[in-house]
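Teaching assistant here, posting this on the class forum so everyone can see the example we discussed in section. The complex has two components, and the goal was to see what a joint structure prediction looks like when all of them are supplied at once.
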Amino acid sequence: QVQLVESGGGVVQPGRSLRLSCAVSGLTFSSHAMHWVRQAPGKGLEWVAVISYDGSNKNYADSLKGRFTISRDNSKNTVYLQMDSLRVEDTAVYYCASDLFPYWGQGTLVTVSS
Amino acid sequence: DIVMTQTPLSSLVALGQPASISCTSSQSLVHSDGNTYLSWLQQRPGQPPRLLIYKISNRFSGVPDRFSGSGAGTDFTLKISRVEAEDVGLYYCTQTTQFPHTFGQGTKLEIK
């Protein structure tokens, strides 16, 4: 079956960086665009970014442009989210999901706090 | 950005009764390819989101047929024909027609 497993979350100080990973199995990874979506504690879903199947196209939420970078390695069936200059308001569970959202990971919690 | 507005934000429904959630987009969700990329997600407490409906009315694999979606253009509806206990949770509409993709605020479904 399809599995998406996020990793890399944790507690980080404001201004620091973190890289999230999402390992995908059971899916022809190189044929699918991949998304990151986040959910702040007690809040709704917020779309973060998407990367095309081959990595040639990327789109970001306007509020995150310049701080977050999505990338992928099709040889490793993995999508990444590099998060720089983290802010307290970036605290959230970060989910990866396949295109059109049929498959989701369990999420990884990122806490930005001094 | 396309704003997705859901109503109601909270719904209390008795077991076996129907439920309905509306979602209105600030712009048409018809893509240049002719498709309308409006989906519905369910999020049970403590769980990641789960796709229920895609492209307005298509049930995803394994989704019970008591869930149905309808609508066109800017107005969409998710209906549950007979609510069961396992349907408790949050429901989100989302558009993937245009970047940035956006979600509704979420509707909390509870059992009366």
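For the discussion questions: Chain A touches chain B through 21 residues (CB under 8 Å). DSSP finds no helices and ten strands in chain A. Think about how each of these relates to the inputs above.
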